[in-house]
Design goal:
12 helices; 6-stranded antiparallel beta sheet; alpha+beta; 55% helix
């Protein structure tokens, strides 16, 4: 059977497209089975089923979310972070405007963070890319993730966190950004004005012990107080100087332990911590 040049241009592609749609319902039914296995958290069985579908219907990579489900299965089984990242990237490349694009990008950031902590430092590039995303969810998520890093890379998150404080109206999101900045360096919040709030607020002020000069003053909701204290506290570091609650000396400990003691004393109004170089004062407004 011979085809004219017109047929080759228009009829053959239509025939192939029709053929793919004939296959599609069968592939959809099998994909429904995959979704059930994923719902039951049977990751290995779901992965095996997906690979079987891809062997039978390789074109399904381009018109379904099957690669996203494959990446999810690989990620959840653990130990195959690089393979999962590559699968999610294939999904994003194959499916422009993909249904689960945001979830795939977040997964890439999480997996890259895990690999970075295991010593594969080049994977931080995936998180840095997230800081430049047009999607603010990805941009913010990347910044929050970087704020937990212990090395200098955490400072890359600062511009995006400052953007949140400047541009966002959601108070909870802004408080999370403040806590992330506290994790990076408490003095980044110096000079940032606290907005009026009807909820109970906790004031944290830090003074230079040698001069008495106030170095930092921030205000955060009491509900987020523990997160803030954990952000500026070193887990194994015990306060070396005096600790006072309402003017009375109490037993020392880590900053987190002392603060918890202060919160447990329901009527306590002022916590004063005299460390080697600083005086920390905490009270509820």
């Amino acid at each position: 059977m011979k085809f004219s040049s017109l047929s080759k241009k228009f009829i053959l592609p239509l025939l192939l497209l029709s053929f793919s749609f004939l296959l599609y319902p069968f592939q959809e039914r099998e994909l429904s089975d995959v979704k059930l296995l994923i719902f039951d958290r049977k990751w290995k069985e779901a992965e095996t089923k997906i690979m079987d579908i891809l062997r039978k219907y390789p074109e399904s990579e381009s018109f379904s979310d099957i690669l996203f489900y494959l990446g999810q299965c690989i990620q959840e089984q653990g130990g195959r972070e690089e393979e999962a990242i590559n699968t999610f990237k294939r999904y994003l490349k194959k499916r422009e405007g993909a249904k689960f694009a945001e979830e795939a990008e977040i997964a890439i950031i999480d997996l890259s963070s895990e690999l970075y902590k295991k010593g594969k430092k080049n994977y931080i590039d995936n998180i840095k890319s997230g800081l430049e995303s047009k999607n603010r969810v990805i941009r913010y998520y990347s910044a929050f993730k970087l704020s937990y890093f212990k090395e200098g890379e955490k400072f890359l998150a600062v511009p995006v966190l400052m953007e949140i404080l400047k541009e966002e109206k959601d108070e909870e999101l802004k408080e999370r950004a403040k806590i992330a900045l506290l994790r990076i360096d408490p003095y980044l919040l110096k000079g940032i004005k606290d907005e009026e709030s009807k909820i109970r607020m906790l004031r944290i002020a830090i003074f230079k012990r040698s001069t008495g000069k106030q170095e930092l003053s921030i205000k955060i909701p009491v509900e987020l107080a523990n997160l803030a204290i954990q952000a500026i506290s070193k887990p194994d570091y015990r306060i070396k100087g005096d600790v006072k609650i309402d003017g009375k000396r109490v037993e020392s400990g880590t900053l987190a332990e002392i603060f918890q003691k202060f919160l447990n004393m329901k009527k306590a109004e002022l916590l004063e911590i005299y460390d080697e170089d600083e005086i920390i004062k905490i009270w509820i407004e």
